Here is the input.
Amino acid sequence: MKMGLKCFIRSLKNRSPIARSLAPLRIDATVYFKLGDKNTKYFNMNIHEFSNLIAQKRRELDALLRRTLPVKVGNMAKAHYQDNFRNQSFTDNGKQPWPKTRRQLSGDKSAASNYGALLSSRNHLYSSVKYTPSDYRVRVANDLEYAAIHNDGGTTNPTVTPKMRRFAWAMYFKHKKGMLPDAAGKWKALALTKKSRLTIRIPQRQFIGESAELNEQIRNKIDSEINNILNKE
Here is the structure.
């Protein structure tokens, strides 16, 4: 954003010498605000009024950068990142589709299979995208313990617990009843495994990170908010 501020001072002297002797010299300022190639406004004021105007604009700009923009930018970033869940892709110089889950490819007709990757009836990962504004900055993050492995991809090694085995048996009978032998067989193998730890590869499904589109939205928002203050009478 390019922003110029030019101040032209001119002396307004009375034409009559008598008038000049009766009244003090008045200095007026014509203040010219120019934002890019448009939005020009002119004001006629004296030096005191001009100084007050500059001080007022400075206070308004500081409040904008310190308190208002961190909240607005944080909300924009949160909405942008949550859109990645809905779009099943990460947006950065175009959409980068997420790989399909086995659940999506299984052909299962259950309600759970209708949800996209990283989505469920609770949408816990989706709803855990949050922003925390502070002075002149904002933090946008997802602090769930499993958020990073999904966002970055990688390998995890969970411990096989009795609770996990019970869940695997429940899923086995559910898929067996649904006439899905391939899925049922995988759940049965998990329920019967003799391993104490599993090795599971999680493909990357990025939802938070650097985004050219988001950066452009933020720049436009900042420009608009600053222009509104500078052009406000």
Observations:
- The first strand starts at residue 3 and ends at 12.
- Residues 47-87 form the longest helix (41 residues).
